[in-house]
Specification:
By secondary structure, this protein is of the alpha/beta class. The chain folds into two domains: about 220 residues, FAD/NAD(P)-binding domain, CATH 3.50.50; about 170 residues, FAD/NAD(P)-binding domain. The chain contains ten helices and 24 strands. The protein is globular. It starts with 13 loop residues before the first strand and ends in a 14-residue tail after the last strand. The relative contact order is 0.19. The protein binds flavin-adenine dinucleotide, NADPH dihydro-nicotinamide-adenine-dinucleotide phosphate and 3-(1H-indol-3-yl)-2-oxopropanoic acid (3IO). Belongs to the FMO family.
Length: about 425
């Protein structure tokens, strides 16, 4: 494939020095970087741990998922959604779009390649990236090297499941929201959903609609907003108002209208955070819930709000208020984290819990330290990831044009890596 580097057939251990950047992850962010590099005629290699592109959307989301902000805010650079897509495309629509995007830009990632380590080899001025392969035939580690490394492995790479006392003693089924597909098989069951983010809320709705009895455990509360107000998307209205008004004022407006439409959510056990919905998203990354129907089931009592779980027992849970209840199943809708700290030996760009310290590479420039870039960690959705991809790819293209090197296979040509740091 023209411009797309292939790993070639190298006996292991091998180190393949690449002419263009290495991109970790073939989700929307990685694809957007690749498409833009393609437009700049810069070759690239994408390393993707799963067997296909967009693993989150393909394998780790529930059936009824739609984009919950309008399609115009979720398009990747260069190609819009087809005009016949609904305002809130389904996950299947979105996946169709991503596959056609990948083929349009001839993006063929190295699939089944999980990045386990990346470090900067200063004497060689190269990022050295170790991958393991899921395929039994190529179980050996392969090493890739490039002057540029783009981290696009996502904010949702690993699941977060809290260590609650007695969790392993619970006899019913326990799963994370990424493993939930539909409420179908929970019909007639008492299901505890831990967490009240967008996943927890929509799973409760789905369970309720499939004849299960959903209970939603709430720890610190959340902002619930109607997905639409005055016939337009709440998100779109907020983005327009932000052009003219300070964020606190937009938040006050959103909360006023939310109260008019939904009533007082606190009366039903959903405490609102002190910071407003947009401000808290900006500062902490905590997403407001854009309601797609759960709220009316909460009001009608078909979804019951319960407090934070204190411990689990064989047949149920004890809550922090001392009450105990029996459940048939527990779903942890407790969110995600990135996995970058487990493989990127950098220490500068990311905190230990996997969030970038500042906009990557820095607040003033897209020239990362030593050619390191990260895309898709803003906590502000697909549109911002796309904008980051444009900037990162343009920056890399400028550097690539100045210092092209030819791809070569360098078995043992580079010195062996230093041992990983203790711990
Ligand atoms: C249920 C759900 C719904 C969402 N809905 C929206 C929405 O409507 N609008 C919106 O803007 N955002 C939404 N988001 C946010 C989501 O982050 C983005 O939609 C989008 O998936 C981000 O793309 P990404 O490429 O940055 O990350 P991801 O989609 O997570 O892609 C990262 C890729 O990197 C791969 N990877 C991870 N670690 C490694 C490794 N070590 N080695 C190799 N490959 C690796 C993964 O397998 C994955 O394919 C949603 C998130 C969730 C969980
Ligand atoms: N249709 C769409 O577009 C959808 C979009 N999304 C997006 O995906 C991302 C992830 O969403 P989601 O999966 O809901 O995760 P979130 O991180 O948004 O929510 C996690 C929830 O779990 C709770 N929680 C976490 N740890 C614990 C704990 N130890 N004990 C009790 N409760 C805990 C949190 O409570 P606390 O606040 O107290 O920490 C919070 O209520 C978000 O950006 C979201 O907007 C998700 C679903 C659908
Ligand atoms: O689903 C998410 O959390 C998103 O990333 C989309 C998004 C970005 N900024 C927001 C502000 C309010 C609600 C959703 C989002």
């Amino acid at each position: 494939m023209q411009g797309q580097q292939q790993a070639g057939h190298n006996p292991s251990p091998a180190c393949i020095v690449l002419d263009g950047p290495i991109i970790v992850g073939a989700g929307p962010s990685g694809l957007a970087v690749a498409a833009t590099l393609r437009q700049h005629s810069v070759p690239f290699t994408i390393l993707e741990r799963s067997g296909d592109i967009a693993d989150l959307w393909t394998n780790r989301t529930y059936d009824r998922l739609h984009l919950h902000i309008p399609k115009g805010f979720c398009e990747l650079p260069h190609v819009g959604f087809p005009p016949d897509f609904p305002t809130y495309p389904t996950k299947h629509d979105f996946l169709r779009y991503l596959h056609s995007y990948a083929s349009r830009f001839a993006i063929a990632p190295q699939l089944g390649r999980s990045v386990t380590r990346a470090w900067y080899d200063a004497p060689a001025s190269l990022w050295r990236v170790t991958t393991t392969s899921a395929a039994a035939s190529s179980a050996a580690a392969t090493e890739y090297a490039s002057p540029w490394l783009v981290v696009a492995s996502g904010e949702n790479a690993e699941v977060v499941v809290p260590k609650v006392k007695g969790r392993e003693t619970f006899a019913g089924e326990a799963l994370h929201s990424s493993e939930y597909r539909s409420g179908e098989r929970f019909r007639g069951m008492r299901v505890l959903v831990v967490g009240c983010g967008n996943s927890g809320m929509e799973m409760c709705l789905d369970l309720g609609e499939h004849g299960a009895m959903p209970f939603m455990s709430v720890r610190s509360g959340v902002h619930v907003l109607p997905r639409e107000m005055f016939g337009a998307s709440t998100f779109g209205i907020a983005m327009k108002l932000l052009r003219w008004l300070p964020i606190q004022m937009v938040d006050r407006f959103l909360l006023l209208v939310a109260k008019m439409i939904l009533g007082d959510t606190e009366k039903y056990g959903l405490k609102r955070p002190k910071l407003g919905p947009l401000e808290i998203k900006n500062i902490t990354g905590k997403s407001p819930v854009l309601d797609v129907g759960a709220w009316s089931l909460i009001k009608s009592g078909n979804i019951k709000i319960v407090p934070e779980v204190e411990s689990f027992s064989g047949n149920g849970a004890r809550f922090v208020d001392g009450n105990e209840m029996a459940f048939d199943a527990v779903i942890f809708a407790t969110g995600y984290r990135s996995n970058v700290p487990s493989w990127l030996q950098d220490g500068e760009l990311f905190t230990d819990n996997g969030k970038p310290r500042a906009r990557c590479p820095s607040s003033s420039s897209w020239s990362g330290p030593n050619g390191l870039y990260c895309v898709g960690f803003s906590g502000r959705g697909l549109l911002v990831s796309g904008a980051e991809a444009l900037m990162a790819a343009a920056d890399i293209a400028g550097r690539w044009l100045q210092a092209p090197i030819s791809p070569r296979c360098c078995m043992h040509a580079l010195p062996p890596p230093p041992p990983p740091p203790p711990g």
